[in-house]
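signal-recognition-particle GTPase (Roseimaritima ulvae), 442 aa
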Amino acid sequence: MFDSLSEGLQSAFKSLRGKGKLTESNMREGLQTVEQAMLEADVSYPVVQDFMQHVTERALGKRVLLSLRPHEELVRIVYDELVSILGPVDSSLHLKKSGCTVLMLCGLQGSGKTTTCGKLSQLLLEQKITPTLVAADLQRPAAIEQLHVIGRQLDVPVYSNPDEKDPVKVCQAGVKHAEANGSRVVILDTAGRLAIDQELMAELSRIDKKVSPDQVYLVVDGMTGQDAVNSAGAFNAELELDGVVMTKLDGDARGGALLSVKNVTGVPIKFIGTGEHFDALEPFRPEGMASRILQMGDMVAAAREAHRIVDEDEREKLEEMMASGEMTLDDFKKLMEKIAKPGLMGKMMGLIPGMGQMKEMLNNEDVSGGVKQTIGLINSMTKAERRDPKIIDTSRRTRIAAGAGVQPPMVNQLVKQFEQMKPLMKMMAGGSAADRMQMMRQ
Ligand code: GDP
């Protein structure tokens, strides 16, 4: 995600690394590289100006210039400013304690609205809430059927009425239907257009007035850069949005839209879409995103991903294990088998601090091959070694490596990997409780 922005910022930090105390002119050069990286990422110009003004003020302060590690200070300053332009964000869906909460999704055609209905449903299902979906996109001929397909895939009810031509009536009837069925949440999938036009705005604003949804979210395509920011501004003027869902950030989106939208429109990003599958929706956290941009990893997001791939029975076992403090390489082996899916492994590694580089390797290489090797190594260890890898000395290392047919340094690498994954496994066991609380918050 946002590779070129990350690389641009890294090269600014690198230019200052090892310089010891800095002069103002050294620092100004580094700051110019930061500014260039932001502009190349297609961040709105006024946002870049504002951002650079804050960063420059702090970076040219005496404390930073005279500090022993000025480049680390600059990383910190850029991190703080990224968090500040991205937030604050409240990713709660504000579900009502009783009755049915109505969420309305709107956005241009192709932005990912219908897919996001499925993704939000999946998120709710994980919290044991079954929403009702309402097919109110009467513009795109295939939209109703697409929502039904999603409903069947996720086993979620879908309300539609192909004979009704008025989307307001479809929404009203859909909400009634959901209430009668005792749904706690109803999601309205409204119509889009290829571009913003008056007819679309009038239709959406009629739904907004007549149905009074509790939350109105705009879905925008993160790949469209400044167009996404402009459409957020236009929709917000008409609908008073509660938040933005920015999709397609898994592709080669440069990041400009994500970094600009809150600052330019005042509307916070609630969720980000990072893939076509239903599980590719993340509650947006400015701190996590700033960490990712600065290649510092995002443990909370990693734990969340990990939590999703472990089913409930296993989670209980994991919780017990963590509580007893007995996490062994055998447990690690099971985890590796679980995440050994192409793509998933790379995604997880990209989120773990310090594992960014491994991500590329894992994405390109035969993932199952790597996992097989890990499993081979663990298999050639004794029970005692699996329980306590600290006892592995040189002769044990040679024996284990020979047993698995690899070089001895691979054994060290595996043990290191195991240590790095431990906190992740801990969060995996209890990780989503915070999410659940967050979502229910009023
Ligand atoms: P709608 O017209 O706004 O309802 O858009 P759709 O939900 O039909 O999505 C349009 C296309 O974008 C589909 O091919 C989706 O699979 C794809 N899509 C949606 N969200 C994402 C995302 O987060 N990442 C990627 N890569 N594709 C997405």
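The longest strand covers residues 215-221. Residues 431-442 have pLDDT under 50 and may be disordered. ok done for today
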